[in-house]
Request: fold
Amino acid sequence: MDINQRYTPQSWPEHPETATMEGKNKFIGFWLLLAAETVTFASLFATYLALKDKGPSGMEFSAAGLFELPLVFAMTMILLTSSLTSVYAMYHMKNHNFKAMQAWLGITVLLGATFLGLEIYEFNHYVHLGFGYTNSAFSSAFYTLVGTHGAHVLFGLSWFIALMLRNAKRGLNMYNAPKFYLASLYWHFIDVVWVFIFTVVYLMGVIG
Amino acid sequence: MSSIAQKKGFGATIWDFMTTVDHKKIAILYLISGGFFFLVGGIEAMMIRIQLAKAGNDFLSAGLYNEIITMHGTTMIFLASMPILLAFMNAIMPLQIGARDVAFPFLNSLGFWLFFFGGIFLNLSWFMGGAPDAGWTNYASLALASEGHGIDFYTLGLTISGFGTLIAGINFLVTIINMRAPGMTYMRMPLFTWTTFVASALILLAFPPLTVGLFFMVFDRLFGASFFAVEMGGNTIIWEHLFWIFGHPEVYILILPAFGIFSEIFAIFSRKRLFGYTALVFATILIGFYGFMVWAHHMFTVGLGPTANAVFALATMIIAVPTGIKIFNWLLTIWGGSISFTTPMIYAVAFIPSFVAGGVTGVMQAIAPLDYQLHDSYFIVAHFHYVIVGGVVLAILAGTHLYWPKMFGTMLSEKLGKWTFWFFFIGFHLTFFIQHFLGLMGMPRRVYTFGADQGWDLFNAISSAGAIFMAIGVIILLVNVVMTTIKNERVGNDPWGDGRTLEWAIPSPPPFYNFAQTPLVRGLDSFWIEKMEGNKKGMIFAEPLGDIHMPNNSFIPFVMSLGMFVASFGALYFLDGDKPWALAVLVIGLLITFGSMLVRSLKDDLGFHITKAELLKDAKGGNTDGH
Reply:
């Protein structure tokens, strides 16, 4: 693999992310990592469900009383949209249109950062209500589940930004194409996990 | 980056091992550190047996005894057995599938250093205020009440080394999926490669629940969370579930590669193709699958209810079926073979009755009502030592003799090897067989002493005597290793003379690029096929001799792991309250780790090429050391 080889949209392979041996290895390896991540989140979800609404006797907080849907719904829409924009970015990556890819990734990062900001606002709001991390088993499980997802969002954002800055001047090649592809795969995974959080924590929480 | 041989100084050798991404050198690192921890765990075992040698002994205090049993179990499982098996996987599996390295050489190195620093961190607890003392299972109700930092060393140390193991698992999976030589279909893969594959899949899915459980414990103890604090609404049973969802597959992570090593040994030293290869493969997959369905059989007495207990009891008994299939296939491989009783082969033959005994007591415990009687008694101790020592440790010792020439280029002495075997094997049965009866007589596990009026004196004394035999066996093995290394008699490609698979077709130890030309595989036991057809080269090649692409060495994995090690000390002392520097240590450690991740991400690492001319020179000069 020659990193200095220049491509045109015509000479660019149809699946640049798996066109090299390194790319193929990374592709399989990353899917396997996502399998491990799935088990991680499954464990967190199971724990959350076991500890939902559990606390010291006389605890004033419950999922039904605490969660409100409007803000969380907006966060969900923002994150889902960011998944869509990352798909556009990958569409342009496959067409070897570097500038368009960078632009769509930029939009993805902005949306992701907005989501993260809203999540911090939400946590801050709960803490001010007295629902801190050490409040109860319920609060520990809630913040750990949703916070782990938030940490993944932060990592995904940092990954996108690092890739965009590093490759800003040199464009797409066979060495960095798999990296962009995997970062967007990671982003989709984060999105899917959030869909489950929205359903299991918030929707099922409001129902009671 | 030439491959010209050169004599290296001591410092250069150390630096080479600290930066290497070569799977064969990483295997040696795993073997040395795993072997070291094996000795540490063994010394702990000896101390346990000295303490229990007579009634009312005061060799160890009750508290120290708790620390020693905890560290014995934890060390032997996480820091000795698994790393030594990872050593064989690293050394042999890529050779067996005809690959030049693993899929992610950099991650291979990172996985090792994470394990290494995690293990060191855990063992530093001895010198920094006391070791963990809540048993290797670290049940939350005990662990949360434990004073000092012992438990925190356990949780943080295992988290780090667990990340390393997870990385190794992913690496092996991708290697086997993507890097097989032409013609090496899945159903032509040697059994050891197959068991590595399934064990890696188990690592992939079993370690995350443990990591989550460990994080919960860290948060509870250090940051005031209340996952397991009952008065805050927590639930200690969650720890038990998460631990055993990991813990039971862990048993198969250990035993499957052991099965793989024995499968190779039976075929080689019976000079026969494995009987029922297909059945062995599918039995391996089935064991891996069922391994995830049985975790609650460790929790029969928790009170999950008769329905849960019945389901898990049945699932547990089902596992005996694929295991039985394997046992019969091995017996029929030996049957009618031209057997040579080399050291690895006598280990393999001895393994069958020993492991079957452990399996039978396992099925006994699967009967939930009976388990209420056996639970927490020495019967359990006897059972799991029969499967772990009678299965895994015998495989490790057999594998050490079998693969030593491939890893180091010299043969261990057969004579001393057999002395090791007889001492270890007799000592093993002497120590643990009698513990079944101690358990049935009512002796509970994890007690630091017993009374003279309880009638357990004689059996405990016999058990302790057996431990001395095992220790003598291990010491003879160490003597063997030293003598072999000093004599340094080099051996050829196929020192056992009956090698069947690709690793025996190349020099011992192999050159750092393994195969100058990628081999073409024409069937199961491909080297044997070529031998039988009189092919002097031992292989036919799938490609002409040409330039080979190899990865660069890197110091980043070491630094990345060191960062985690430093950060762990910060986390450990963070909420002592009176140590404001701890937060800084935590932050600095994480900065080192994430900073080196960033460097890795931003710096292009394209590897280098070995030219055809260098390969030709190697072929003449016999250079095997590389750069």
The helical segments of chain A are 21-51, 63-66, 69-94, 98-128, 137-167, 177-207. Chain A touches chain B through 38 residues (CB under 8 Å). Chain A has a mean pLDDT of 94. Chain A is about 75% helix and 0% strand.
